[in-house]
Amino acid sequence: MPPTNRAFRLAPALLLVCGAWLVLAWPWLSGRVTIPWDAKAHFQAQFQFLADSIHRGEWPFWNPFVFAGSPQIADPQSLVFSPPYLLAALVTPNPGFQLADGIALGMLLAGGIGIVLIFRDRGWHWIGAVVAAIAFAFGASAAWRVQHTGQVLSLGWFPLALFCLMRALERSSAGWGFASGFVAGFLVLGRDQVALLAVYVLAGWVAWWWLAGEGRARRLRASLVPLACGVLGGLLVAAVPMAMTLLLAGETSRAAIIDLPGAERGSLHPASLLTAFVANLYGTDGPLAEFWGQPSPAWGPTDLYLARNMSDVYLGAIPLVALIVLGAARGALAAREARFFVVAFVALTLYALGRYTPAFAPAFHSLPGASLFRRPADATFLMGALAAVLAGYCIHRLLAGDLRSGLARTLGGGVALAAGLAACVAVAVWKGRLAQAAPFIAIGAVSIALSALALFVAARLAPRHAGLAGLLLAATLTADLALSNGPNESTALPPVLYDVLRPDSANATIALLRARLPNEPDRRDRVELAGVDFHWPNASMVHRLDNTLGYNPVHLNDYSRATGAQDHVALPDQRVFAPLMPSYRSRLADLLGLRLIATRGDIADIDRSLAPGDIAEIGRTADGRVYENPRALPRVLFPSGAIAADFEALIRTGAWPDFDPRATVLLERPQGGSAGTGPAGTVAIRRYANTEVIVDAESANGGYVVLNDAWHPWWRAEIDGRPAPLLKANVLFRAVAVPPGRHEVRFVFRPFVGMAAELAERLAGR
């Protein structure tokens, strides 16, 4: 166990880290800008749905507002199991943009504090901890990809889990072991590639602990109880949500395993590593038309599937100088206590580079879970975290005065820095972008020079004025990151752009949709928000509009195959139809109760098969046009008979049998029914909530109550409080056979019971 550094000044370290965080986070905390793209288009809507559901007294386990219904509790991006978002949702029914942004940025602060605690336990200098924590929270992908909320959350948990794990092993502590597993459980709940790779780093630390010191057998034995407690803590947090997600994965559009070529399209281009020297080298923070990094036309057909902000790895000039001059040239990175972090950083860098190194293919094929994710460049999140730790360690060695001496070594490091800047110039000249890149290269050169000077001065101040030395480095790094990694088009946009995602928005399109939806006891008509704008598909979750589409890479596969629904529908050509739903003028559109369609332009740009009069335009707003489908069927039907149908064949061919949905329901296994001649009786929705739908049905001869909501095996049906078989009807929907008389039919979503039953069936081999 490393000796505790009694000279470690925790209070000043935390004060400087929190002060830097407040300065760098203030543009978002103040409300001047907001974290855009996925943070709003996807996660803000999830956050609003969670909070609104809780304050309505409804479970947020099923989401009726996208894709005709979705098992929200099993969705890894739903925030249902995220402690900070869940706590905030308990407090307010309408969480605003600033609160959502503050939580994401706050998780980065929490991770930074975890790094400070790691430094304290290892006896490393507190000023190095300050630099590491600031660089962790606002460097590399933590800054440039802050809009990827789920991955940011995973990154924030990582240092805290590592801190607890280190203590558990070094102290042979069951309590810290349990804590490490408990915290790692929330890390795992990210269920993204950052979480997966972080778990491998944590496992690597355990292996390193076993093998790197003396008394390996003793270390192994002493670690068994803490690790067992860690497994218990992790299972308590993550077992149920993970089981639900794994079961859902087999039923969703992401069920297919990603192949190696598909994953390699998400590789980090080697030229992206030059952004470690010059943050905005490729024009990442400007208009998209001016971006010339990878992938862009400037590089030809690189066949990379990356957004422009996914390739920036700028950590700050102080960390860069520390790593190259103090770490590589003067030997700090060769120290035994730094080796694990060096090895892990190199491994993650090779992984991130994907197809550009021979290491990725073996890792992809051998590491469990790697084939679930399509973008090895996601490893840049953890590359930044480990580089921040290493930079802080190098500063610790500088301030401890035990680096290798010699002017030649220092000059060698300076030459390496100059070579990096020269490479930036060379690439800019090669691509004919020197005039565009020159100002940013100049900023990088000045930042490096000032940071080197700050390190030189801090080293001389630290023995007698450590507080001033820490303040100097913290202030220099904060100013650098504010300039180079500060708000830009990828990370900060005016909140007004996302006004439609506010519950109190006065948006004219939303108002028109609400005004034109019928208010009848058997109806709950749906809308479709197609090709309006990037952030529109999930606006239905904010305004409680039942949507046939949405923005989410996870949605039920049968629904996607039947309707053509894709992950996103920001542009008209992203609304893809399917054989079973070849047009808005189709039986499935009517069964879905698709009444209103909002789109940016003419609906013919989306559905070219429409004939005049098929869909009527009912209004125009600043956002586009709204159309009405007059043939939309009620949400609940009560046909008198049933006929058998092969649902898989229907999805594949789109060849509906000749039947009237009001009179007959299609079932895979009809219960002695036959084609009906009309409705069985009267039916009306009495209560419609997220996880419960109550229907009143009355008939003389009985029939089938059909609820045109997405079928899922975790739903259950009851008739007058008694369980009844839940049937899959008309390919996608729910039905229950109802005897003659007056009855209460209840559909209830029971995810825990459903998950247990599904697991039992799979274990039994059924």
TrEMBL record:
Keywords: Membrane, Transmembrane, Transmembrane helix. The chain crosses the membrane at residues 99-119, 126-144, 150-166, 173-189, 195-212, 224-244, 313-333, 340-359, 379-399, 411-430, 436-459, 466-483. InterPro entries: Uncharacterised_YfhO. The keyword Transmembrane helix applies. The keyword Amino-acid biosynthesis does not apply. This is YfhO family protein. It comes from Alsobacter ponti.
